Amino acid sequence: MSTTPAIEITGLTRSFGDATVLRGVDLSVPPGTVLALLGSNGAGKTTIVRILSTLLHADGGTATVHGYDVASQAADVRASISLTGQFAAVDEVLTGRENLVLVARLRRLPDPRGVADGLLARFDLEDAGDRRAATYSGGMRRRLDIAMSLIGDPPVLFLDEPTTGLDPQSRNEVWRTVRQLADGGTTVLLTTQHLEEAEHLADRIAVLHGGRIIAEGTLAELRQLFPPATVEYVEKQPSLEDIFLAIVGGDAPDGGAQR
Fold first, then answer.
1. C-alpha span between 152 and 160 (Å, rounded)
2. Partner of 256 for a Cys bridge, out of 76, 116, 232, 252, CB 3.0 to 4.6 A?
């Protein structure tokens, strides 16, 4: 695997009028890893993703994706990435297969139907492939959205709060999908407000606050920033999410057996 960072950001700045959002962001993402970018609403997570995906120009600093400069080599960057936003961008009038075929044709790939069939199988959507996307559950629609993003095998994938508005079962479906992508070598930059999501998915975690990255590392490295934990024995009650998933027969977030 290449040692060149899949994403490299140095001194990135961006303002909107009088509001300064990014104040010198530095970040490096190794290839084939999942990096979770954490931050509160308005911290600038989506602004970073928009700059990296060439949808927005930075005021200062530099950024490269897959070795290409986002400012001077925008076309090469766009050919190397895919972006999944906070809301699934599927055409609900079309079937799942038709959505995939459409994107494959737009990317001018040979055998668009074969590409669609392969992705339907990969994302466990074969039985729903000929149904209109409007009939899909939230998790199925999001899986289809991610499948569409992977047409052409982009080496870098941006997921901007991919589980926004999803119920626990649908969220777990998306989590399993992201794990599969990482296992296959795709570099994933995941923005999220949900700490549990980052804890389950990320190889590395970066915290964006005040326009800068104030902490970055593995979960184990970040835990070392705090004093050693004290051992206490308490009775652990199931959370409401545990209860819900047990009732409906959903999988646990860590991929454990059904309760």
1. 20
2. 252
